[in-house]
């Protein structure tokens, strides 16, 4: 299918390399002051995909000069034991960020665990203090994937003010925080979900489309207005032509006919998620600098402005 003459591929690998370089430079500056930001990554069980994610996070941390601390717990770890570890990490002034790899085994209450992380160390941005702060328009630690999408959008579109953004998907980790960040950037935001009616017609009104659904190639050119900027968060493994491959929620080849800029899958949003985890660790470290050394960061501590 013929594409728009000026369609631009949004290169998430290159963008993430720029973010990581910024983080590395800032980490070096902090180390000059005798501070090395540290990220604690907690993995419960031996889910193969989670193990790969954790390994990649640790590698990226090392590349940027962030100290990583890995805690690998057996799948039958009691919830109380995990909560006790988080409590210790909350109280440890040497630890700036805490990430608990999801999903957790079924016997552990995921929400209770996420709420146990001190908000100022919550580098995933999932604690209700940070969720609430984002929805109030305060600058707080925000979830990594939508934060990465915002950076890609700013790079691709420049000014976002006044643009109509359609977010497809309303999960707590992608869709809802994405909508909140776009609203904060003065976009007009429409959120679509599985109960929305006539999705293609609503989507065709969008200057910006962010797809976070988990349905392979759901969105094709007929959903897009000419010149739309498309951010495809979806990662779906399918079998095609006798081989297994990763595709997004957007039918990439079809969308090229209408979009002015689009992220590929893989190589679009994915690399940005990890880059923003590093950025959040750095931001968390900066926020905590004012706290006296060894002081426990209260769980209900309000997140000050990050600007
Ligand atoms: P969830 O399954 O939690 O949420 C999916 C959302 O899509 C829900 O809000 C659901 O609606 C909506 N939905 C489902 N089917 C349809 C449909 N046919 N039409 C419209 N809306 C629909 O997924 P996540 O948000 O966690 O992830 C979404 C995708 O992004 C997945 O492919 C995931 O792998 C990927 N992902 C990629 C990341 C990255 O780093 N690139 C990070 C995180 C996720 P309802 O609420 O009504 O059920």
TrEMBL record:
What is this protein's gene name? Answer: folD
Query: Which SUPFAM superfamilies does the entry mention?
Result: Aminoacid dehydrogenase-like, N-terminal domain (SSF53223), NAD(P)-binding Rossmann-fold domains (SSF51735)
Source organism of this protein record: Pseudomonas panipatensis
Write down the CDD domains for this protein, in alphabetical order. Answer: NAD_bind_m-THF_DH_Cyclohyd
Which NCBIfam families does its entry note? Answer: PRK10792.1, PRK14186.1, PRK14188.1, PRK14194.1
Q: What is the protein named?
A: Bifunctional protein FolD
> One Pfam family, short name please?
THF_DHG_CYH
Q: Which InterPro entries match?
A: Aminoacid_DH-like_N_sf (IPR046346), NAD(P)-bd_dom_sf (IPR036291), THF_DH/CycHdrlase (IPR000672), THF_DH/CycHdrlase_cat_dom (IPR020630), THF_DH/CycHdrlase_CS (IPR020867), THF_DH/CycHdrlase_NAD-bd_dom (IPR020631)
Its keywords, alphabetically, are:
Amino-acid biosynthesis, Histidine biosynthesis, Hydrolase, Methionine biosynthesis, Multifunctional enzyme, NADP, One-carbon metabolism, Oxidoreductase, Purine biosynthesis
């Amino acid at each position: 299918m013929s594409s728009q003459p000026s369609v631009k591929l949004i290169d998430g690998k290159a963008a993430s390399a720029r973010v990581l370089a910024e983080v590395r430079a800032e980490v070096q500056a902090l180390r000059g002051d005798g501070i090395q930001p540290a990220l604690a990554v907690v993995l419960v069980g031996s889910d193969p995909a989670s193990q790969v994610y954790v390994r990649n996070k640790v590698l990226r941390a090392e590349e940027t000069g962030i100290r990583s601390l890995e805690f690998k717990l057996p799948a039958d770890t009691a919830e109380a034991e995990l909560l006790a570890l988080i409590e210790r990490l909350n109280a440890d002034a040497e630890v700036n960020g805490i990430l608990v790899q999801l999903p957790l085994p079924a016997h552990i209450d995921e929400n209770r665990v996420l709420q146990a992380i001190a908000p100022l160390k919550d580098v995933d941005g999932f604690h209700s203090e940070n969720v609430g702060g984002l929805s109030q328009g305060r600058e707080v630690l925000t979830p990594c994937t939508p934060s990465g999408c915002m950076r890609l959008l700013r790079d691709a579109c420049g000014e976002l003010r006044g643009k109509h953004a359609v977010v497809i998907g309303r999960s707590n980790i992608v869709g809802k925080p994405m909508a909140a960040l776009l609203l904060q950037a003065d976009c007009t935001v429409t959120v679509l979900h599985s109960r929305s009616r006539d999705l293609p017609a609503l989507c065709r009104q969008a200057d910006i489309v962010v797809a976070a659904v988990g349905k392979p190639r759901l969105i094709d050119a007929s959903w897009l207005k000419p010149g739309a900027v498309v951010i495809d968060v979806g990662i779906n493994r399918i079998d095609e032509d006798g081989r297994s491959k990763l595709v997004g929620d957007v039918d990439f080849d079809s969308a090229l006919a209408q979009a002015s800029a689009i992220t590929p899958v893989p190589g679009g949003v994915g690399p940005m998620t990890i880059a923003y985890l590093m950025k959040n660790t750095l931001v968390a470290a900066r926020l905590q600098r004012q706290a006296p050394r060894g002081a426990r960061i209260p769980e209900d501590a309000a997140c000050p402005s990050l600007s």
